[in-house]
Structure formats: structure tokens, C-alpha cells
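Mods, move this if it's the wrong board.
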Amino acid sequence: MKIACLSNASVIHTARWSAWFRGRGHDLRVYSLERGPDAVRAVALPRLPLPGILRYPLALPALARELDHFGPDLIDAHYVPNYGLLGALSGRHPLAVTAWGSDLLRVGADPVRRWRARWVLGRADLVLADADNLARAARALGARAERVRTIPWGVDLTLWTPAPAREDGLIVSTRMHEDLYDIPTVLRAAAKVMSRHPWVHLVVAGDGAGRAALEAMAKALLPDARYRFVGRLDGGELAALLGRAHIYISAARSDSTSLSLLEAMAAGALPVVSDLEANHEWLAEGDGAWFFPAGKSDEAADALERALTDPEAAARARAANRRVVESRADRDRNMARIESEFRALVGPGR
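Not the wrong board. C-alpha cells:
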């Protein structure tokens, strides 16, 4: 198939998605306003210094010229308000739109955002969601039920594996440094636990607009030499970190299926996560994870304490979580399901 993928080239999800389809022999081209690594091989669209609601539609003439030249069998648009909108404006079909979570879950009562989501979803021939809560949100915002598919992207089970040895007391955060992921709650909770246990330490991976402020906050709250900010890591480095970590922590305020959670589960890091509906699609309290209310650092510290100090529950959780990802989140198996949906849209012979 010839696939025109409209997506943010700077995001790791786009790199993995494009690599998988190219590895299957498809001619996939990424079109993006954002610049990404060379491996993504993105075709650059004009990025004007305007608000997103204008910036993406104004890239349409350049995209139309590129699509006329490429002649894709399928438009594959990621994230509803920007590339989903651009895909719908192109007027080309079949159009597959993939929701990433906050694009639908955090629409709220904003009439412009709701109208935009409804307009895009109503024109999609296929809507992909990676969690039940996200699929429900898509249907509530106008996606036709028969066109919605719930398929988690999954993780590479050959990469995300437990390391031979685990570091007791190593807590790892891998979420981006943006408001949605509430790293301050992670830092406050870690500070409380570190005050009780001198063997506990924290590694904060990832990057984002809030990094400088978070590093300053960590310096004020956490003991010296017991925390590190390591920035963006490649897949192998991140897999090695989670493979030896004691605990994975996420304080996200909203989420669909979190790939970083699935990676931690596959690698054997114990999930201590905010009490979100999407997390409960994969985990249960005391049976694979420890939960805390979003934004509550005291309760997050208590959850960390329980996970750190119950080795029998930890062993059960690691074994159970690996079984879950093997049965429900094998990337090759799940991406092949998405590939089949694309083939059904395109039709035989392509």
C-alpha cells in the first residue's frame, strides 16, 4: 500500500509507526509540520508562526501538491485536532484517523474543540482508538460506531524485557515534561519516600517545556545524588532502564492506553500510577499495580511505600503484568490488525 501518514515527526510514536509499516514493505511517507529525526524521513510542510487552529489548515495547499505527486491509497492521520483536521480538509479517501488520547479525552465543554473533533470524526472512514475510554469518546463526538476500532498499538516484547538484575529502590518516570503528566506530583511523592528510605533514588527520563522548572523543583525537594534527569533516551536505553527499575511511576491527569505503562509492565517495573479509567483496563489494585488519585502527592507516596515494601506482591505483579502484555499488547500482532483494517479500506490488489 501507498500510505500518506500525517503526523508529528518529532514524536517517538510516529517513528515507531512509520518504521513498522515500512518494515512490512509498504510505501509510507510521513508529512509533518514538525521536524523529526532523519530516520522518519518526513516531508516538511510549511510551519507558520500562528496558532495551531490556523497553522495546520494553512499547510493544506503544500500537502495537496505532495499528495497529487505521491498518489496514496490511504490517508493515515494522527491526532484529531491538527493532522486529523488536515486529513479531513484534504478531501481524500479512504481516511483513517488515529486518536492519541488527550485530543478527545480533554475536549471538555469548549465548543470550538468539540465542533472540530466532530467534523473530523464524521468524515473518517476508520477511527482508531487504543483504549475503550477513547473509543467511547470518539463515538460521543460523532464517529460512526461501525467505523471505530479499539486496538492498542502494543510494545516490542523482544526489546522490553526484565534485566538480569534489578536495582532495589530505583523509581523511574518516563513521561514527557508537560502539564498533562504532572511530574511535580512525582517529585513531591518521591521526596516523602526518600525521607523515610535512604536506599530509594529517582531517575526522570523524557523532556519537554517544563524541564528547567522541574529540575529546579527537584533540587529544592530531593536529596543530592539521589536523583537524575537523563533527558530523552532511545528505545534500547529506556528498555534497559525500565528492565532494572524497581518501580515505574506516572501521575498523568488523563490518558488512554499508555505505551510507557505497557513498556514498564513488559520490563518488570512495578506500576505506581494515577487512578485513571484507562489504567484500569490493564491493571488492578494489588494485582499488578498500586494506584493513587491524580494530583495527590501524599497518596502517591503511600502507594510507592506499599510497592517498595511488599516483595511477595511485587513478584506476583511482575509475573502477571508480563502475561498481560504478552496476551494483549504484542506490537507485531496488534499492528498487523491495524494493517488489516487499512487493507480492508483500500481494497484488494494494493
